[in-house]
Amino acid sequence: MLWIAWKMLIGNRVKYLGIVFGVVFAALLIAQQSSIFCGLMFLTVSQIRDVEGPGIWVMDPNVQFIDDIKPLPDTDLFRVKGVSGVEWAVRFYKGLARARMEQGEFHQMILLGIDDATLVGAPEGIFMGSLADLRKPHAVLLDDAGYKQIWPGEPYILGRVFEMNDRRAVVVGITKASRTFQTFPIVYTLYSRAVLFAPPERKVLSFVLAQPRPGLNATAVCQEITAQTGLQALTREAFMQKTIRHFLAKTGIPVNFAITVLLGFIVGTAIAGQTFYLFTVENIKQFGALKAMGTSNWTILVMVLAQAMQVGAIGYGLGVGLAALFGWGSRGFTKLAFFMPWQVLAITAVAVFFIVVLASLLSIRRVLVVDPAIVFRG
Amino acid sequence: MTTDQPRPNNALPSDVAVHVRGVTKDFGTGGSLTKALRGVDLDVPYGEMLILAGPSGCGKTTLVSIVAGTLAPTDGDVVVLGKNLIAMPNRLKVRFRRDNVGFVFQSYNLLPALTAAENAAVPLLIAGWRRARAVEAASEVLDTLGLGDRLTRLPTELSGGQQQRVAIARAIVHQPRLLVCDEPTSALDAKNGRITMELIARIAVQPDRAVIVVTHDSRVYSFADRIALMEDGRIESVEAGMHQAHPANPA
Predict the structure, then answer these.
(1) Does A7 touch chain B (CB under 8 A)?
(2) pTM value?
(3) DSSP readout, B37-72?
(4) Hey, where are the domains in chain B?
(5) Helix or strand or coil: residue A178?
(6) What's the CATH class of domain B9-244?
(7) Residues of A in contact with B64 (CB under 8 A)
(8) I need a labelling partner for A114 at 20 to 30 A (CA). Which of A64, A267, A292, B8 fits?
(9) A10 Cα to chain B: minimum distance (Å)
(10) pLDDT tens-digit series, residues B128-173
(11) B9 contact A CB<8A
């Protein structure tokens, strides 16, 4: 009987395509908007993700997210190092600096200062110049997106100079860095140089990056650091989650995206529901004939639900496929944040499931109450 | 007017396929109450083709819907193939129709997306047959009805007469013991109407099967064993048909 349901469904091409279109529209909108939302959230933690190596971030207890800098005294580095579960710990500076370019224009930049001795916290993807050049006088690394933002359309040239806090900075390397939420250029330099580029403050240490001893659980070491120093210590993953939670709770981003997703859900349900209902009404005598011939209400219910699930599955596949295509196609020429984790696919699947169930409810009611004697009425 | 003397259900003769006593059917309530049936008595023995005739609105379709188990009467007794439909739960009534009743509808009601063979196979699919086997069995029936070369055609690719033959094949493919035909010739021209009735008379009328044909087409009366004339929700008269004398029925 499921086969008959399928044949009935695809037999009416216009209605069939109409229902599928409704589901595709909803799935596309939900998946695409959710992916952009995830992309934005991904951007908020890009600087945590880019710092590979240390498993623990130590900061002021009141820090809520990566850009919420509450500087520590330099001595806190030694307090962290003194915790028994810590293998090593280094300084890490993060702040905003205003750079004056060759032509006199200014750019706001994200300034990151990595440990002078070990270079822990350095970016991975240096594709022009070398990390060792960072030890040269005035040396900085610039991310490629920032380079293109400052000098649009110009080729990569090492040795370009700009000023920060009246101090000379020389670009000795270009690196791939993940885009940030603020979209400012990212400048990497040594910690000792970064604090000179930055506006003067009494305390300058933004974070302490630490690594737990081999074999020790990072979360347990974090608890130990907090217990012994009173500082907030989080694993890399926990810090990312805390940052994302902050943006979810304190900004309007989730609400705005949720509204769009909800609209997609409602419009998709309306289109699919209306077309599905019309399809059912158009086939009501066929359903009546099936009931007269001995098809039970349960079987009819399963048939309608199977029809709904079939268009749901096809619409879902096409919708998320188009959303993925959109993300893939836009990656090269737009600054759109797009990240489609499996959770987006799962959420879209659940939404589509509810859309087709809601869309089929009216139809189900219509076919269940239809009198099989309808077939005898002309 | 009644066809036979009323008889208790438990005393039904074994040759009676359909036994209807004192059946009434009301639609609506209060001022909009319509009495579609006003106390109908009717017996149809096995091996008989009964034609229910009468003007539009006289209650033919309502009566046949009740006999087929698709409509519940307001009052009265209905025993079909030895089963009391009044006492039968709806769930069992569905199963009863599936196993025992074949339908030929006025507007065919073929599924437009299915081929002729697939349409004819629908009752077998409802009964749980595997698709390939059901279509094969339906194809054999269609072949006997002269549609062996139209098995894969969609309803829209068939003439009205051919569509009705597919509907007949669908009605008999599962060997029902009661065949209910609602205005089977009304959408057909005279020639196709005659062919359709000949088919029903030839194939459907068996010693263990009863056939009820609802029609107001007097041209087909000659195929009936008996003709029950209805008027205003009652059976006014039951007359012998000319089936025995019809050349289409060698018996």
Answers:
(1) yes
(2) 0.71
(3) EEEEEEEEETT-EEEEE-STTSSHHHHHHHHTTSS-
(4) 9-244
(5) coil
(6) alpha beta
(7) 376
(8) A64
(9) 8
(10) 889 999 999 999 888 887 888 889 899 989 888 888 889 888 988 8
(11) no
